[in-house]
Hints:
It contains eleven helices and twelve strands. By secondary structure, the protein is an alpha/beta fold. It has two domains: 11-52 and 88-272, Aldolase class I (TIM Barrel, Alpha-Beta Barrel), CATH 3.20.20; 284-346, Type Iii Antifreeze Protein Isoform Hplc 12. The strands form three sheets. An eight-stranded parallel beta sheet has the order 5-4-3-10-9-8-7-6. The chain is elongated, with a radius of gyration of 30 Å. It comes from Psychrobacillus psychrodurans.
Amino acid sequence: MMQIGNKEIGRHTKPFIIAEMSGNHNQSLERALHLVELAAEAGADALKLQTYTPDTITLDVHTDEFFISSDTNLWKGQSLYNLYKEAYTPWEWHEAIFNRAKELGLLAFSSPFDETAVDFLEELDVPAYKIASFENVDIPLIKKVARTGKPIIISTGMASVAELDEAVRAARSEGNNQIILLKCTSTYPATPANSNLATIPHMRDLFGTEIGLSDHTMGVGVSIAAVTLGATVIEKHFTTSRAEGGVDSAFSMEPHELKMLVEETERAWQSLGHIQYGPTEAEKPSLEHRRSLYIGEDMNAGEVLTSENLRNVRPGLGLSTKYYDLVLGKTIKQDAKKGTPLSWELLM
């Protein structure tokens, strides 16, 4: 169990839901603040930004490996520099966004992409940090974040076990053991078949941390499945409307879907309960509606029970049906009307 701000995170409490704004503000502060309001209305626990500039994340080069040409890439046809120029959240907006989140009861933090971003976010006193999948091998950045003493959420996309071990050890080497690892598939969108959620309990056992999911699939099914496997944190990109476009809109949730995510992941968590056999307290009234043995027609004392006058029916106030063969041929010692539950006291 750990804590971010005033929110506890662990299997004893409902999943911690992070609404990732990313670049879905479409370079409008008004839209960004509206997204904060929508996240709060949907019931998310936290809002997350990304803190970088085009110059802190790549080079102003527009050819070769700095140009996205893959047919399978959502952002084909753009240079990295221009993509990040379109997607980044201006640093001068952060304080206004964080303040609006605080007013609405949302925790707010960010993913820093270099050490200057960490220094900037420290000035805003963020309650936690997120390391993006593409930065989970940036050991100097992880150590810098760890030294703040605040919780670190690390997405695990693309990372091998050895790379994750190095990242976790780097954080712990700075005295920070407040680590949450998010199972992540770094494709946009991701498919359920490529999500490999069976890794979640294995990762928890391997690293001894809280585990969650950074989910780039469409819908809520994968996130719900993750909760049943022990995920305690769910992160999803969200937008006002996919139809309005934006750098991440194609794989982002709309407000009604985010609300559904909050509600259904909590239901999934509630359903886990504990190991239980036998009737729960809520089920006990239903026991009387099981089948049991009843007198099926009016009988006189001294008559013999047969397949015609002994019935296996609901409700369950008579002898258990497992005694059916045992009592067939037995004699009753008193008159019994149709609908009398069979009991040992009725038999001779």
